[in-house]
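Translate sequence into structure tokens.
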Amino acid sequence: AKRRSFDEGDDLPRLASPGAESLSLREEVERRYFPEKAGFRLFGDPFERKRDEEEHKKRLAAAQEARQQQIEAGRQQELERQSEREKEERLNRLSSEHEEL
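Result follows.
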């Protein structure tokens, strides 16, 4: 009896999202790797597209991070350009003041 409950994962906590049925580890494994045993589900297999969705989320996160880095790089370049313009303006003012003397 102990061996059977261990094999079925009864000793592990059940992970269930709110409003969803709580499945044992054995049931989760059977539904994921042997969907023909689980029978018909009106809204399809919840594990069917999980890997694709995870990859999609990773790609979105990577793209968002790349965009953020580009924005930061653009801001840095703009600050550098502004600093150069200010230096040129100061030099022009100093040179014009020097010429007036």
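Note: Residues 2-100 form one domain.
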